Amino acid sequence: MRTRPLLVCFALGLAVAPVAPADDWPQWRGDERRGVWHEDGILERFPEGGLRFAWRVPIGAGYGGPAVAAGRVFATDFERLPGNRGRERLIVLDENTGEQLWEHAWETGMAGLMPAYANGPRATPTVDGDRVYVLGSAGYLAALSVEDGRVLWRHDLVADYEAPVQAWGFVGAPLVDGRQIITLVGGEPDAMVVAFDRGSGDELWRSMEVGNEPGYNPPVIYELGGRRHLVIWHPKGIAGLDPAGGDVFWQFPYDVEYGQTIATPIQDGNQLLVSSASHGSTLIEVAAASAGEPEARIVWKGKSTSKQDLDGLHAFNSTPVFDGDMIYGIGGQGALRAIDRATGKEVWATFEPSEDARIATAFLVRNGDRYFISNDRGELMIARLSRDGYEEIDRTHLLEPTTRSVRIRRELGKLLWVHPAYANGHIVHRNDREIVRASLLAE
Predict the structure, then answer these.
(1) Phi, psi of 33 (to 5 degrees)
(2) What are the backbone angles phi and psi of residue 103, rounded to the nearest 5°?
(3) Nearby residues of 60 by Cβ (< 8 Å), 6 or more positions away
């Protein structure tokens, strides 16, 4: 049963609790790429008449989510051009007013991209201080000045590294780590992942043989077994690397269909979870060895290669979450599934936040003891998740789904496959027509 919004009245003169410092959302999945929104002072239920929008601004097509940092919103879009080419663009807006401050555009070929999905950049921009890093769908990588969009350096990953343009393009949003920018490239020779100098764009190191394709997973850095690990999930395996130089600490085979390494691996303590639609979930634990090098072991893994979620969680577009002794995630068939962390066994499942359809998608972002969940129907929910089940607190319409659902049955006919940003008391979201900013602050 879906809970209807309630009108909540407050008496005048009530003391207001201190509000925690506001958070930016400077990259894919926010701070440290963990999908956690740390702010207090956020509403408990949505307003009776719907969300209050600060602004709406027209935007073109694209799958890439927005980033929010230093009073600005960074988003990418796409315009189709004659001759199997397109014009991709980074636009930068004032966070408070939506006024466009500057843009940077580049032409790109669409050869190699699956035509049905060739509609713009996929990677969320990465903002780091005075620089923003953008990755286009065909391998255009550039460092730009946050102030005015001036190009500081750029690479064509296809031309410079002989990297293939995969069916769904380049997706692995660049990761900032100190002076280096780490990017999933898939180049030759031995350039699955490449680190570039933040200042100059010069290559610092490269690592790992590619095989046939690098996949789509943005790199992440976690501390596991007492050491920092650069986690690289590619279509043939999951690996932990030394982020200082790319040496491989450990690697396990993990074959996926069509190179679809999509959901970001997640970490809690010394455990790492990776999940795919075709291979199910695998829980890995890392411990420090006596000689100081980390050792990894598989705690449990799914047995089914079916996309029908036959043995627990088979995540597709949606990244799961650790929550105490539980794991929650949206499976490839659209159900939100609760998994026992110790065993990998399913505890419960529900289609309530999503839809009973292939690759139905909803993104979970934690805020305190609850979750904000945005689905591909354009709805936003507040819910609590526990071993006992799914408790929906409220639901509201946020944005129209506008992406054509290619060969995928949907009740509404179109999709919204973009991860929103949560920053400074607001949600920033976009479809293929507009980008919006709406308040989530308590009254």
Answers:
(1) 60, 35
(2) -145, 155
(3) 77, 78, 79, 89, 120, 432
